[in-house]
Amino acid sequence: MNPFEQTIQSTRSRARTGVLTTPHGKLSTPFFMPIATRGAVKTISTFDLDRLGTPILLSNTYHLWLRPGLDVLRARGGLHHFMDWSGAILTDSGGFQVFSLEGLRKLTEEGVKFQSHIDGAPLLLTPELCMEIQRTIGSDICMCLDVCTKLPATREAIQGAAEMTTRWAARSRIAFDVLRENSFNPGALLFGIVQGGVEKDVRRSSATSLMEIGFEGYSIGGLSVGEPFEQACDMLDELDTILPRTSPRYFMGGAQPHEILGYVKRGIDMFDCVLPTRNARHGHVYQFVHDDLTRPDFYQVVHVTNERWKQSDQPLIDEQRYVVDVELARYSFGYLRHLFSVQEMLGARLATLMNLRFYFELMRRIREGIEQGTV
Amino acid sequence: MNPFEQTIQSTRSRARTGVLTTPHGKLSTPFFMPIATRGAVKTISTFDLDRLGTPILLSNTYHLWLRPGLDVLRARGGLHHFMDWSGAILTDSGGFQVFSLEGLRKLTEEGVKFQSHIDGAPLLLTPELCMEIQRTIGSDICMCLDVCTKLPATREAIQGAAEMTTRWAARSRIAFDVLRENSFNPGALLFGIVQGGVEKDVRRSSATSLMEIGFEGYSIGGLSVGEPFEQACDMLDELDTILPRTSPRYFMGGAQPHEILGYVKRGIDMFDCVLPTRNARHGHVYQFVHDDLTRPDFYQVVHVTNERWKQSDQPLIDEQRYVVDVELARYSFGYLRHLFSVQEMLGARLATLMNLRFYFELMRRIREGIEQGTV
After folding, report:
1. Backbone angle region of A18, left / alpha / beta, with phi > 0 → left and psi within -120 to 50 → alpha
2. Are B47 and A327 within 8 A, CB to CB?
3. Is this structure's pTM higher than 0.95?
4. Mean pLDDT of all residues in A29-42
5. Contact status of B338 with chain A (Cβ, < 8 Å)
6. With an 8 Å Cβ cutoff, are B335 and A82 in contact?
């Protein structure tokens, strides 16, 4: 049974709404996932995520493998129980982290050998082990281990990485299905990852060969790594003609609000991004400026550390819609600025709640816009 | 009208329960105040303090004077509004902070000259200015500016400091009363601070002369600075014979749970302490071991960073009594240990909520023990 159902196709763009059914909830697409790399979204708990109405979070295979480790995750019955989270969990494969590590790293057909960033211990991550880890985490949406190439790279290198990613995806599909019965979360979904840098034909053949293997959804990796927004859009336009409209599409990697809107219009259903949480810790806060999302200036990023907020009694949010708003509506920008100026951690925390709320509200407005024919 | 009313006198000790009426609530004594030095209890918001059932918090005159500054506090209508706190606020005078600062410091009859710890700017804090700052903060319970002596000191130095503290207290009383009409919080209370180190006769004369001026309550300063617990108890025994039973008594400075119990038995009504919040940030968590407070081992301090908690699925709290428990009951010691091991700020936050909950529950059990004749 296909876990994804498209509900409304925009008449203005290739944007669409849909429902993705996971063992931990039916998720309205397009959606946004906050990042809980090590089993926690920085500064906030799953109690807070509930108050934000969070449908799904993203965690990291590589980091959870090292700490708390598979023994703990196995004994606790998986990450949902460990962090007391009843929503859905997507795990990325850890490939990006492993290929980003400093130090020696050896890539073979079998997998990737590297050293733990914690104690330097030699490790070998294979597509099969990557499935076993994600099955132990109990993730709802798992990613195949992919080969990430550092850019700039030659066309040959990009093509080689994409082809190895496909061969690993085939092994991942088998391992994932074999492990189903012994998993905390047998109904989990597996996504393949389209690679190919900014080479259109490599992207095309990557997508085509993954579709031949068959996955519950398709991730688009290797973008959002410094290339211009327009180039990412070109790749999405290309892939839109190939990837099945019957499957969800996940744009991996960060995106500013206006970029998310642009990608949604090119048929993307799922997003994650470290920006709302990381920016929050620097006192950078997202705010809607106009209800009309078609205006290029529909939002702004405010630096609350700025002197101009010192005397502000403007509340942190201007209307109450989410459970967390009962808390956020109590405080002013002046108080938030004070917290940053005296280095109180509460500042980072309140800004994190504000920014996640903004991204969730952004997705809600985008879904509404698709339904109303404005996106 | 006396804002303090004693309700029950223990039959086993000089412990008592009572009610202290402030402009922001009737407070059951003995009570504990969490420390919000710079207008925030570290890692938590006033929303969280409400969930903990916090009746009163402590903030700091010196720190708020420098940041956010009197202009901001004045424009916002005081600290209650600035941090959205409807409970009571006690402010210490800032004397302890000023006398603890490194660098040049000049003490005269007028006040104390020193340099800002932020930008080195020369500042003069007088008893009158200290009242003006606390009136601008809108504190419910204000402290007179006192002279703190670094120990060890000669008897003459200790006596001199105590006498100057009394002369400053007389000036403070006048300034405080004059400022009443133009305050955000005209019904605030003023406490005098008994000094005198561990010299009994100096303590006696300090208390007597403060009582002649007349205050709504009496603070005991200059203890909890490294002297043995028994010596602090000796001073409290001495003062118990002098201080009026019709007024509340505030023990200034930190105390471990068993010390708080000991001080309550010597007639103390009010406490603050940085230990629950500071220890939390190091992963040290307070726990009750026995219901019977008379047992010397009625509590323990657990180091959650220890390996032994790695596989623990024990919930952070063992019964639900406070609003915040809905959140705390969700997480295990194993998860908390993981958060500390991967340096997630959420660990410090959850431990802070746990430790404050412990101190509030300690005070509740002490009050219950007084009522039931067991303390």
Report:
1. beta
2. yes
3. yes
4. 98
5. yes
6. yes
> Is A15-273 assigned to CATH 3.20.20.70?
no
Q: Where are the domains of chain B?
A: 4-273, 284-357
Pairwise CA distance, residues A295 & A118, whole Å: 46
Q: Which two tokens stand for residue B341?
A: 């091991």
Q: Can you name the CATH fold of B4-273?
A: TIM Barrel (3.20.20)
pLDDT (tens digit per residue) in A214-270: 999 999 999 988 889 999 999 999 999 999 999 999 999 889 999 999 999 999 999
Q: Which residues are registered as beta bridge partners of A60?
A: A92
Instruction: Please confirm whether the linkage preceding B30 is cis (ω < 30° from 0).
Output: yes
Chain centroid to Cα B153, Å, comes to 25
State pLDDT tens for residues B209-236.
999 999 999 999 999 888 899 999 999 9
A137 contacts in B (CB within 8 Å)? none
For residue B130, give every residue at least 6 positions away whose Cβ sits within 8 Å of its Cβ, in sequence order, or none: B61, B93, B94, B95, B144, B145, B172
Cβ-contact A57, A33 below 8 angstroms: yes
- pLDDT digit string, tens, across residues A128-150: 999 999 999 999 999 999 998 88
Cα of A263 to nearest chain B Cα, Å: 31
Q: Which ipTM was obtained for this model?
A: 0.97
Instruction: Note whether B313 contacts A348, CB cutoff 8 Å.
Output: no
CA distance to partner chain B, nearest, from residue A257 (Å): 26
Give the tokens for residue B162: 């105590």
Q: How far, in Å, CA of A142 to CA of A58, rounded?
A: 10
User: What is the rounded (10 degree) CA torsion for A205, A208, A212, A213?
Assistant: 70
What is d(CA B212, CA A371) in angstroms, rounded to the nearest whole number?
A: 76
Which listed residue (A140, A146, A272, A325) is catalytic? A272
Closest-CA residue to A235 (of A252, A247, A248): A252
Q: CB contact, 8 Å: A368 with chain B?
A: no
| DSSP 8-state secondary structure symbol assigned to residue A307 | G
Q: Which two tokens mark A69?
A: 């480790």
Averaged pLDDT for residues A76-89: 98
Reported as half-sphere exposure (CB side, CA atoms, 13 A), residue B207 has a value of 26
pLDDT at A103: 76
- Would strands B4-9 and B16-22 be described as parallel, antiparallel, or unpaired? antiparallel
